[in-house]
Write a structure and sequence with these properties.
The protein has 827 residues and is mainly α. It is built from 27 helices and no strands. The chain is elongated and about 170 Å long.
Length: 827
């Protein structure tokens, strides 16, 4: 048990044991005396004023016997604990006690030796003091004489210097030691001026002035020659200032001299900029695409378009040009600023010069000088940047602008308050903005070129716009070498190429905001450039351009929709619809993620762009329906207008134009089905293909037209027809279609049959003419009902066509149903 006791000791008690020595001497943990006030309570057993008798009396009065016994037991334990702690303290510090004893013994011996040495030193110092006093007394008489002789010697040396000064100055002038000459003259100038009333000193002064005038003339000539280095020039200016040359004139001359050197640098830079001669080659290449990596719908000859625009006509690229400007002009300008400031601005002025405010005057001249040269340099830089028309590699321009911006920061440090850094930042901003405009123009050009490729692909006979086996009206085989084999592939290729081009452009523009680019930390590139420059001016503007340029295809004149292929209208409508569905959101999300744009300013909402894209898709699809409907209508109109319906022969087959209408409608249905979903149809009746005959030859039809066969009752027939129209559902021929195949085909068929109806109303028919219309309508009904959303619409319009023919028939005698069926099945 006793062996386990040390391991289970309370850590607080162990610390108390180690701190016992400090407590004994009244020190705290930091080794300083405890500043707490001492207790004055006589019952405080740990206090210095403890009174045993008083403490015992208090215990006897306040405590019972049991409490006294407990108190005794507790006190015995504390005494034993203290004894144990003291014993432990002695054991732990035994070596220290021994060492302290030895140290004290050694100190006693050392101090005894030190006292003896101090007594010896004191005796020696007393002897030295006595010896020094005797020497001073001995030399006291000669000290005054030595001081007087020393003063005379110094005066003679000064006089010797003055008399030798003209010769010394001439020697320095011969050796071109101008600095030493000026220094010597400045040392003697005040003395010569003070004693100029004496003839000898006056002569020396005149000779010195003549020599110094000659020296100043040589310095001015050296200053004007301009062939000296910057260090020699600075020394020359400093010497002229010491010779009391007017500071303002020196500033002007120094800046003019430096300006002549900087002018050579500017002329050298300007020689690198040559105006590009206008020519067809440059004009041609300026419309090429911004990237050769993506081609859409390559033309038949397989020639890929390249997007790299020509580099400037100058011999050096933009990075070399900026490097040369920074290494020559900007570095020289910084050196001139530093030297000028050391000479005129930061130079300590004394005497009369201090009262002339030379630093303020010199600083204002320096600012004007720097601003003028910087403006010319910036003009050259902007001219060179404008030559950067190619957008294939943007990294070169960004690196050049970054280097240009960083080197201008040296001017900002050397010349606080200068407008040069701000002007440089504005140049960088304008360059970035112009670059965004160039990328927008390149994207627009790429999009228009892609549409041209699509139009060429649509006009190429190798391209099959329909699915395999769907008919050959829109092309032959699919043996094109690189062309897409169907409209979906063409749409996918066009959409992917545009999206890849946008990503490529965003990656290029993102270089302006890269972390290793110095000017990217500017507020403009963190906010407005990302928000207004890239998102609005580039991405949003391009999306709007796609929608607007697509809508322009709907403004073509002519019955057949001008020169725009209907398949292109259909493809663009699907492209705009895909943009509204997902592409716009994806592009804007990608832009916001790459540029971390904080939209402090109002921006175009995604919903607004999607609405614009959907509007363009709707307009294109409506126009497609109108164009295709007009193409079929034109065939029907010509077939009605060019035939003599009164004297025609008895029908034996279906007219060829009706077969062509069915074929074209089938091809259009296949074409639309490649890009749009089927859509919703109403339930078809089981006898849809036979209802036409039953409608036209049934008892209902005979009842409707029975009166017309009798010449005595034309009014009753018209009345029955009008009553029938009142209860029929109104058909809106040119209403907007939905984005599905059934709705598109319904719109086209409505336009075609309505045109057929209107043409029939303008003609007069004989018996066989009416029967031919019956055969044609029955043939149309056999095939057209399956394309529309509601077969009753086809029935109604064909019913109207036969009815109008019967109204305008001179001898209305309808053909038998069985005969019509035989002719149509045979036809």
């Amino acid at each position: 048990m006793e062996a386990e006791t040390p391991a289970s000791e309370d850590p607080g008690r162990k610390r108390r044991v180690h701190g016992m020595l400090k407590l004994y001497y009244g020190l705290n943990e930091e080794g300083k005396a405890d500043e707490e006030p001492q207790s004055l309570d006589p019952c405080d057993i740990n206090g210095p004023h403890f009174d045993p008798e008083h403490y015992l009396n208090k215990l006897r009065k306040e405590c019972s016997l049991a409490e006294l016994m407990d108190q005794e037991t507790c006190m015995v334990k504390q005494i034993r604990s203290l004894d144990s702690d003291m014993q432990t303290l002695v054991y732990e510090n035994y070596n220290k006690f021994i060492s302290a004893t030895d140290t004290i013994r050694k100190m006693k011996n050392d101090f005894k030796k030190m006292e003896d040495e101090m007594d010896c030193l004191s005796a020696n110092m007393a002897a030295i003091t006595d010896f020094s006093a005797r020497i001073s007394g001995t030399l006291e008489d000669q000290h005054a004489q030595i001081t007087k002789l020393s003063g005379v010697h110094t005066l003679l040396r000064k006089l010797q210097f003055l008399f030798e000064l003209p010769a010394r100055l001439n020697k320095c002038l011969e050796l071109q030691a101008y600095s030493q000459a000026v220094s010597s003259h400045r040392r003697a100038r005040c003395v010569l001026q003070q004693y100029s009333h004496m003839p000898s000193f006056k002569g020396i002064q005149d000779d010195c002035h003549a020599i110094m005038d000659k020296l100043a003339q040589e310095l001015r000539q050296k200053f004007r020659d301009g062939g000296s280095s910057a260090k020699d020039l600075s020394e020359c200016v400093e010497l002229l200032l010491q010779l009391d040359e007017p500071a303002e004139d020196l500033c002007e001359k120094y800046l003019n001299h430096a300006g002549s050197r900087l002018e050579l640098d500017l002329q050298s830079l300007e020689a690198e900029i040559r105006p590009s001669p206008p020519g067809p080659a440059l004009k041609d290449s300026s419309t090429r695409r911004p990237s050769p990596s993506v081609t859409v719908g390559s033309p038949p000859d397989g020639t890929a378009k390249t997007s790299a625009l020509p580099s400037p006509s100058s011999n050096t690229d933009i990075l070399e040009f900026i490097d040369r400007g920074c290494n020559e002009f900007v570095s020289s300008l910084c050196l001139v600023i530093t030297s000028y400031q050391e000479l005129f601005v930061n130079h300590a002025q004394t005497g009369e010069l201090a009262s002339k405010n030379i630093p303020q005057m010199a600083n204002s001249k320096l600012h004007a000088f720097v601003d003028d040269l910087a403006a010319r340099y910036f003009s050259l830089v902007e001219r060179r940047i404008k030559e950067e028309k190619g957008v294939a590699d943007n990294s070169l321009l960004v690196r050049a602008l970054d280097r240009f911006f960083r080197r201008l920061q040296a001017v900002a440090k050397l010349l606080p308050g200068s407008s040069v850094p701000q002007q440089g930042t504005e140049i960088v901003i304008r360059a970035a903005t112009e670059r965004v405009k160039q990328y927008l123009a390149a994207l627009q050009s790429f999009y228009m070129d892609s549409l041209t490729d699509v139009r060429q692909a649509l006009a190429t006979p190798r391209l099959s716009l329909a699915a395999p086996g769907a008919g050959s009206h829109f092309g032959g085989s699919t043996s094109g070498r690189d062309a897409p084999s169907s409209l979906p592939e063409l749409l996918s290729s066009l959409s992917a190429s545009i999206l890849n081009q946008i990503k490529s452009v965003l990656a290029s523009v993102h270089l302006f905001t890269a972390k290793d680019i110095t000017f990217s930390n500017k507020p403009y590139f963190k906010g407005e450039f990302c928000c207004q420059g890239v998102r609005e001016s580039l991405v949003v503007s391009f999306i709007k351009f796609v929608c607007q340029s697509s809508r322009q295809f709907c403004e073509s004149a002519g019955d057949k929709g001008g020169s725009t292929p209907p398949a292109l209208l259909l493809l663009l409508s699907r492209l705009c619809l895909d943009y509204e569905t997902s592409t716009i959101s994806y592009i804007l999300t990608l832009t916001d993620e790459q540029f971390l744009a904080q939209h402090h300013n109002p921006v175009t909402a995604v919903t607004a762009l999607c609405a614009e894209a959907r509007e363009a898709a709707q307009k294109l699809l409506n126009h497609y329906v109108k164009v295709q409907g007009l193409i079929i209508s034109q065939m029907l109109r010509k077939s009605v207008e060019t035939r003599d319906w009164v004297n025609t022969i008895e029908p034996r087959n279906v007219r060829a134009v009706m077969k062509r209408v069915v074929e074209d409608t089938t091809s259009i249905d296949v074409q639309v089905g490649l890009l749009y979903e089927e859509g919703v149809r109403k339930a078809h009746s089981s006898d849809s293909s036979k209802r036409t005959f039953s409608v036209y030859s049934s008892s209902r039809q005979q009842t409707r037209y029975a009166a017309s066969y009798t010449p005595s009752a034309p009014m009753d027939t018209n009345l029955l027809s009008n009553i029938h129209k009142l209860f029929s559902e109104r058909i809106d021929i040119f209403s907007s279609v939905e984005f599905n195949k059934v709705s598109v085909m319904t719109g086209i068929i409505k336009i075609s049959l309505k045109t057929f109806l209107e043409c029939v109303r303008l003609r007069t028919f004989g018996r066989y003419g009416l029967q031919q219309i019956q055969v044609d309508c029955h043939y149309l009904q056999m095939y057209l009902w399956r394309f529309v959303s509601d077969e009753n619409l086809v029935h109604f319009l064909l019913d109207e066509i036969v009815g109008s023919s019967a109204h305008r028939c001179l001898d209305p005698a309808p053909m038998e149903q069985s005969v019509i069926e035989v002719i149509c099945e045979r036809g």
